Each structure stands twice: as C-alpha cells, then as structure tokens.
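Recall from the previous chapter that SMILES is a line notation for molecules. Here it describes calcium ion.
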Amino acid sequence: MDRKMWHRALVAALVIVTVTGGATAAAADEAHRLTGADPAHESVGGGVAPASTVVALPDLAIAHRLPSGGMNLWRMPLSELEDGFGQPQLVKTLDFGGFSYDNSRTIAGDFGDITASDDGTADHLIWHRQPNGGVLLWAVGGGADTTPRLWHDLRTGGWSYAASTPMVGDVNGDGWDDLVVTHSTGNRGDTNIWVFPSDGTRLTAPQHWATKRSGDSVLPPRFLLGDLSRDGEGRDDVIEVQGDVYRFVGGTLQSVLQYGAWTSGSLQSYYTDAVFYGPKSAGWSFGSSRQLTGDVTGDGLIDVVTVHAQPKGGILVWMHRGCSYDTGTQYCMEAPVVWQDLRTGGWSFAGSRQHLADTDGDGRQDLVSLHSQGGHPGILVWRHRSTGTGLETPEVMADLKTGGWSYASSREAVADLYGTFVG
Ligand SMILES: [Ca+2]
Ligand SMILES: [Ca+2]
Ligand SMILES: [Ca+2]
Ligand SMILES: [Ca+2]
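With both inputs in hand, we obtain:
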C-alpha cells in the first residue's frame, strides 16, 4: 500500500473509532507503538498489520544544554492518541565522555530496531564535532537501552563538522529513516550529498549520491527532505531553497526566493526545474522565511509550508500544496496560499521554531510551534491543527515556562513514528 492509500485508510479508520468509541480519547488506551516496521516498510517487506489499524505517533526529540556543557535528551509524545501527550520524558543524560551540546547537532527518527528493547519511540542521532574537525556519529535508540552507540568514525576521509549538515528522511523508500548529509566540497560552493542508509538495525556506510553545483545562488542554500515528486513514490527527495537568485518572472528579471528538487532513490540524482519563484518585490525573502515539508492536507502528497516573518512583526504561514496532475515537470506544487495570519498576538519569527507532526491522528500533519517567552527562559509549545484547508487557532500543548527549560539552550526535531490500534 502506498503512502497515499495508507493515509486514506487511516482517515477511514479514525471515523470508525470516533463513531463506535465516542471520541478519540477512547483510543488513547489502545494506541501501541510499532517496532520493526512502519507502514511504508511493510508495503515493501510484505505487509503484516492491517493498514486500518496504523496511526502516526510522532515524538518531539529535544536536546537540552546542561550547565556542564553536556546535554539531556528528551522525548515528548506529540499525538493526543498516546499516553504522555505533551509531557517531556527524560531519555538520557549525556554528561560524560566529552558529549557537548555546543559541539554537536542532534536529530531524530526511526532508524531501526537499534537494541533488543527498542520500543519504537524516537531514535536520537548525535553528529558530534571532533578535536581535529572531523565527526563521530552516535545513536541512542528508543526504549530501555539508552547506551550511546558509536556508528561511524568520520575523523578521517575528508569529513568536516563545520562543512556538513545532517538531515533525516527515507530516501530509498523502505520505511526506515536514513541519514542524509550535505557537505560543502570547498570548490566554489559545490555541495556533496551523502546518504547513510538504514539496514533496519543501524545506519550503514555513507554513499555519495550526488554533487550539487553551486549555480548562481548568492547565499548558501537550505536543504530539506520530502517526497515532492508527482507520483508520491515514497522516496524522499532533496529540496533546495535558494535566496537572491535572479529569474525571469512575468518577463522581468527579478531577485527571487526559489525552491527546486532533486530526485532520490538512485545514485544518479539530478536537479530539476524550480517549483516556486517568490519575487523579492512581492515580499518573499530567503532570510525571513523557513520551510517545512509534510502532508498537511492529508491527501498523501507532500506539501511545503513556509513560515514567513512580516515587516511589522508577526508571522504568516503559507501553504504550497503538493499536486499530482501533469505540469510537464517531475515535480508539482500549487501556488502558495495563506493558511494562518499570526501578525498579531505576540508571535515572533526570530523567537520561534516550527515543525510538522500529526497531533490528533487524523492523517493531516499539524503545525507545532515552540515559542520563546520574552525575558523569561522557558518555552510554550503550541499546536495549530490542520483542517485540510487551513490551520485552527493555536492551542498550548505543553507549558515549559518553568522546570529549568530554556528556549535558547535547547533544540528539537520531530521523529515520524507509528503505532497501531488494538481492539
Ligand atoms: Ca528505533
Ligand atoms: Ca530508508
Ligand atoms: Ca498534501
Ligand atoms: Ca492532524
């Protein structure tokens, strides 16, 4: 079953639960995490669980700086279908062995059943700077055994912590998250794209998938992962966001914010036409925006959400809906529309971070915002539920204003995880 069909089945299943169970709350005790495979994996590996029982159970994986310089790793269930919704749970304290919050990047996903006790909660990855400028890659699996495992020693071979950026996605479509690392080559801004494929228990040796030429982008681009291709074949593509490039728009050469995509799933990745040009003259700005990928509409096609700062303060949330009709290009994205106007109410672009996750199990990913608290160090976590055509008024899903939480001393990532209904 492909991802699109799976989402449709999911929505149908929830309708049944709601009707027979009275409310989604009735399902809270019946949601169990999946290990071993997620829906896409089962479609490849020869299906096991009925698709109608599968729901998204994403985790927010938080890394928080310790006074010693180390870090705490936390997980917070993001789905209200699960016990512990919105409540951070400490996974591991890394105050030994040289682990450093400031000298590492942390991401999370579903990289495999890493230990015998892996329970399908977030697996954490630590991309750690070494004294010689290289990298060590550590993993902390979900479940009881949180001993960090050294997966790759990248202190040699030309690896540079400073020149690399780790990302998470499933680029070969087997249902396990893979690590994708963009690495500057030092040659006129060219970028190598490396993939560390998961084998279901760990990330295997890095493979060089592509070299992206710098082209005419003035600013270093941002890279995202998402299955943007029209057929939604289940393999994440590499999406490149460029700023201050000049393109003819409406017959006029203009500075634009531009999104393009690379195919994944083979050793021959290549750049295709940009799917969006946002002219500077219309207010689009690379530096004043950030992009997210996910299925916000619930149709199984990946959408791009752009969170954009506004000149007089606040934020607009734009939706570029993914589409499947024939546009003559391999990729398809509809013109952006505003899904939420947060220009009032104290919303700050610089003082917030956003993610996408399905927080209510309806198959539509919702916007999740972590917001700083002015002069106070803490955090409020908001969810903006997707209706399929817009976002509902944000509501607080976790109040981390006290308890030692610091917006400035933490970072987080969403792990896309799954579970089943029983009964
Ligand atoms: Ca795992
Ligand atoms: Ca994979
Ligand atoms: Ca969609
Ligand atoms: Ca949702």
